[in-house]
Amino acid sequence: MPVRRVRPSRKALGIEYAIRDVVVPARELEKKGFKILYLNIGDPLKFDFDTPEHIKEAFYKATKEGKNWYSPSEGLPELREAVAEKEKTYNNVDITPEDVMITAGVSEAISFLMGALLEPGDEVLVPGPTYPPYISYVSFYGAVPVPYRTVEEEGWRPDIDDLRSKITEKTKLIVLINPNNPCGALYDEKAVRSVLDIAGEYGLPVASDEIYDRIVYEGDFRSTASLSKDVPVIGLNGFSKVYLMTGWRLGYLYFWDPEGVLEELREAVVKLARIRICPNTPVQLAGVAALRGPQDHVKEMVDKLRERRDLAYKRLNEIEGISTVKPEGAFYIFPRVESIGSIWRSDKEFVLEFLKEEKVLLVHGSGFCPTYGRGHFRAVFLPPPEVLEEALGRLEKFMSSKLG
Is 345 exposed, middle or buried (0-12, 13-18, 19+ CB in 10 A)? Predict the structure, then answer.
């Protein structure tokens, strides 16, 4: 009998992840001998940042002492305890270690949450633009991601009226990302409370992604759970950004559940965690050291990033045909390209043409939301100032040649 062609599932083939998808044409150029300046991915360790030594030493010590066994599916008790301490100390969130689930990065936390919560046809309200896994995982589980508008002229803060207008009987969850990826917005207390008020009015939980909670340049970060009175909040966070542990793949989610309405969801998440056995045990012990050890690197990192943020913001707004809002947190900037729709048919065409001509890789804004991200691109301001100057100089040259 002839071997039948193996056909993958439509839901898998339909997955897109703009941040990494654009790397494919960049690698093709590299094969031809070109050097590419990568401004597409939020990985500080690809530039002049490094994991603090005490975290590395804790990982090494754990492996040398034989702590290489399977750990509990929910995560090591000592790390769950350290996470609860951290959330109380820095974010004023009162949770117990039992409220915490350790994951292999925030991406796994998103997958667990959406897989445990959603049925086909359900809807999830996500900020527009948003971090792509919130679109991809919702879609993969057969549900519908519904973007709500964030207002560029107001620093990319949520449009509360638009959010309210998009709630239906199928809505299961409201997602916040604060500080925001891809826009760098920092939501103030009023904005967060407004979202919580709507969630409470409609009896909806809020998922709050706060992985950039300590990377803030102006203003104060206020955790969603710390501002909620009775609206249940699922917090998502991790070690990749603040603790410079991107490739270590360590994150967590927690349930802030004053009314006890998330108990069944919590159990469903635990069941999904059991299938994948456990997070990396030695990395979890390094995570304990990250949370309880010296924190000096955080201020040093933020100071360095603030200088680069200011440089990127100034230079981008000096380029004809480009305008951008000043990021207040994270390490992304989300400029508008005025000539998309005339010189370029789409923001993706703009990004690919710029890559081809000037060998700098950005991410097209529509990859973060086809409605509210189009006409923009996302860049990181992680590189050293001289590399940023080089990349933005190439962008200025490119725009000048096209606008004539």
Answer: exposed
Q: Is 370 exposed, middle or buried (0-12, 13-18, 19+ CB in 10 A)?
A: middle
How far is the CA of 7 from the CAs of 10, 11, 12, 17, 142, in angstroms? 9, 12, 11, 21, 19
* Spatial contact of 332 and 183, defined as CB atoms under 8 Å apart: yes
Cα angle for residues 353, 49, 24 (degrees, 5° grid): 30
Pick from 116, 214, 179: nearest CA to 334: 179
pLDDT (tens digit, 9 = 90+) per residue, 105-123? 999 999 999 999 999 999 9
Residues 120-161 have pLDDT tens digits of 999 999 999 999 999 999 999 999 999 999 999 999 999 999
Distances in Å between the Cα of 263 and the Cα atoms of 70, 88, 260, 402 are 26, 22, 6, 57
Q: Identify how many contiguous H helices and E strands the chain contains and give both numbers.
A: 15, 15
Give the residue carrying structure tokens 């012990």: 285
Phi then psi for 293, rounded to 5 degrees?
-90, -170
Token pair for 148: 């709500």
Helix, coil or strand: residue 76 = coil
Number of Cβ within a 10 Å radius of residue 330: 28
pTM comes to 0.95
Structure tokens at 382: 């992680």
Q: Nearest Cα to 176, choosing from 130, 238, 239? A: 130
**Measured distance CA(366)–CA(378) in Å, rounded:** 10
Helices (H), 189-280: 189-202, 224-227, 263-275
Phi and psi based region of residue 147 (left: phi greater than 0; alpha: psi -120 to 50; beta: remaining)? beta
Residue-wise pLDDT for 215-238, tens only, equals: 999 999 999 999 999 999 999 999
Question: Would you give the end-to-end CA distance of the chain in angstroms?
Answer: 63
Average pLDDT, the chain: 96
Q: Hunting for tokens 């990377």 — which residue is that?
A: 215
d(CA 400, CA 212): 35
**DSSP codes joined into one string, 292-305:** HS--HHHHHHHHHH
